[in-house]
Amino acid sequence: MLRSIWTSIKRMKHPGWLWFFIVVADLILVFLTESTYDSGDSVVHYLYSRQALIYPKYLMHHWAKPLFVLLSSPFSYWGWIGMKLFNAICMLGASYYTYKLFQSYHIKGAMAVLFCFAAPHFFLVQSSGLTEPLFTVSLIAIVYYLRSDRFIIAMIVLSFLPFVRSEGWIIAPVVLFYLLITKRIKYTPFILVGTVIYGLVGLGYYDDFLWMFHQNPYSGTEDKYGSGFWLHFVNQLPYVIGYPLYFLVFIGIFDGFTRLMKGLMDPFELVIIFGITIAYFAAHSSFWALGIFHSFGLKRVLIVLIPLFAFIAYRGLDRVVCAFGFLSPIAVRNAILLSVIIFPFTGNKAGLNLPLSVQKEPLQRMIDDVREYTDSTFGDRRIYFGNWYVPMTYGKDIDNEKQAVAIDRLKYEPAMSGSIVIWDSYFSVSDKEVSADLLRSKPELDLVRRFECEDCKHPYTVEVYICD
Fold first, then answer.
1. Within 10 Å of residue 152's Cβ, how many Cβ atoms?
2. Same domain membership, residue 208 and residue 185
3. Rounded CA gap, 68 and 78, in Å?
């Protein structure tokens, strides 16, 4: 059966029906997914993006990422479903550019789509408010445009990449080096387009042309994030792309090294595909090991490399097929492809972990219960929050003090009359540095109910206070 499907794919000259199926199936699955993927940054990015059309300050907010906010806000303005739609479009676009990259090497593009979506987090991140999807499609678009000699487009997209995620500054030197060794220096000035445009806007808004450097939220160190060991991301990679692709990637790297030693690797594949992958990976490994640039060692930063990993994995697949030359090449290839397809659904920790990975986190479900309790008991009131999911589920405007106020304000002033204070044992403590003892010491606050999360991996408590 697998062989007949693969034969049909190989015979297709205009696989429009395949793309139609991929897009429709993906959008349906993303729509049905309840997860926010990440309960911290994902929610905050969404809230900032959603309110950007009301509060333009977020269009020039360094941490929120100006270009991400600009492009996503027309979608997120309509709610969480709009945010998911935007990120789904980005990841579908990333799979399409990977498809085109494969074709440029005379590799069947269907392999690109298969390898991308076989990486569990390529699908899961679509149901988030994170900036990784936009960076992913932007990065692989740059790679494809460089491959197809559309250097001006590639350099203009690259010029805006740091305004999607700060790792754009890692990618830029690699691309500039490629232009240097291939004698295409005349295209390098286009890398300034994004910085000049945002610099001019910043000159009017902040009175600072170089605001993107002076306001960098990742400079210096952050003690609470800590540090780790150098091979942290090597160990985390299988939990992003799955073990079959993980092994194929390493075989692909070995294949690339072998071809390089024999002088058989072209400069584009060496510098752009392998070079960007290694530079990005090495940079994040260094940040985490040295405890700099506020690195938290989060494995999700590797998602942006999945299209490039897909290409390297295909090189690994070819290497394995050649190594087992005494067997049928079709049988070996199909066996490997079958393992790639099946693995995400095996229940392995590096797979999809269904149904948990597509459901809301237990603590979010508990906060939904908190909202139902307060709505039915106290009605619609101003809230104080530590966990950003609280204003999200309440549908509150985080820039309107009549609707929502960050809980750390209570360290300096009494709670406003008529408010509900929703304290949680993680975000309120770690991010806002507000303890339950502080709230209990405030005479204007009365503890009315305490919620315990029984399904959370770690003890998690929410306390509800009323100020009347």
1. 12
2. yes
3. 16
Among residues of the chain, what percentage have pLDDT more than 90?
Answer: 77
Both 183 and 266 in one domain: the answer is yes
> Looking at the predicted structure, is the pLDDT value of residue 13 above 70?
no
287 and 374 together in one domain: no
Residue 104: pLDDT over 60: yes
Which of the listed residues 358, 381, 410 is the one where a domain comes to its end?
A: 358
Tell me if 420 sits within 8 A of 381, measured CB to CB: yes
The reply to whether 340 and 380 lie within a common domain is no
The pTM (predicted TM-score) of the whole model is: 0.93
Describe the crossing of helices 306-323 and 276-290 by its angle, rounded to 10 degrees.
120
Tokens of 206: 């902040």
Choose among 343, 269, 295, 275: nearest CA to 104. 269
Boundary (domain end) residue, out of 324, 358, 392: 358
pLDDT at 4: 55
Number of domains in the chain: 2
Stretch (H or E) spanning 452? strand 446-452
Number of H helices, E strands in the chain: 23, 5
Q: Identify the DSSP state of 5.
A: H
CA distance 55 to 14: 45
Is the pLDDT assigned to residue 243 strictly greater than 80? yes
**What whole-number distance in Å separates Cα of residue 352 and Cα of residue 47?**
26
By residue range, what is the domain housing residue 428?
A: 362-467
For 420-461, how does the pLDDT look when each residue is reduced to its tens digit (9 = 90+)?
Answer: 999 999 899 988 999 999 999 999 999 999 999 887 777 889
What's the pLDDT score for residue 1?
45
Name the H helices within 77-119.
80-104, 109-118
Type of residue found at 452: E
- Identify whether residues 269 and 215 lie together within a single domain: yes
pLDDT one-digit tens code per residue, 145-186:
999 999 999 999 999 999 999 999 999 999 999 999 999 999
- Mean pLDDT on 193-220: 90
239 and 290 within one domain: yes
| Cα distances (angstroms) measured from residue 57 to each of 54, 61, 76, 182, 252 | 9, 6, 16, 41, 45
Contacts of 225 (CB under 8 A, 6+ apart): 291, 294, 295, 296, 297
341 and 382 inside one domain: no
pLDDT of residue 21: 85
| Same-domain status, 103 and 76 | yes
Residue type, 15: P
